[in-house]
Amino acid sequence: MATILMRRISRNGKAVRGTATIPIGADAILCATLENAEYIIPDGTYELQNTMSPKFKKILPLVCGVPKRSGIRIHTGTKPEHSTGCVLVSAFGKQQIIDFINQKTRQHEKVYLSISSDGLRGD
Fold first, then answer.
1. Which residue has the higher pLDDT, 45 or 60?
2. How many CA atoms within 13 Å lie on the side-chain side of 68?
3. pTM
4. CA 85 vs CA 3, 59, 82, 89, 95: distances in Å
5. Alpha-carbon torsion 106, 111, 117, 119, what sign?
6. CA neighbor of 29 nearest in space, from 120, 90, 95, 73
7. Can you tell me the distance from the alpha carbon of 48 to that of 27, in angstroms, rounded to the nearest whole number?
């Protein structure tokens, strides 16, 4: 089963930046994360599953096991307002804010495909 390790780095107004590490065999995917400060999930390790999102009408990674929360997805977005409890992911770069906008879709797809390759496709 795939897991994700969430850690926070900084907070600036509504934006909470952090990291997510998803181990895949001997390798790992490292992502920059962005969350809305009103809805951040606690630092920790959580299970991931690809399941159908009723809101987005497509299969998206679901973060499972967050205390007192459910329905937390990993999806695309460029600012904290795009998240009401979900995790937005991006690749790391020297200009992380620009990278967040430009690479958000590619990094999200990398996370999705890594979970799928781990045998966690949703029904």
1. 45
2. 4
3. 0.76
4. 18, 17, 9, 13, 25
5. negative
6. 90
7. 17
CA 34 to CA 78: how far, in whole Å? 8
Report residue 32's pLDDT band, with 50, 70 and 90 as the boundaries: confident
The string of pLDDT tens digits covering residues 93-123 is 444 443 444 445 555 566 666 665 554 434 3
Residue located via tokens 């409890």 = 85
**Structure-derived torsion over alpha carbons of residues 18, 23, 29, 35, reported in degrees to the nearest 10:** -30
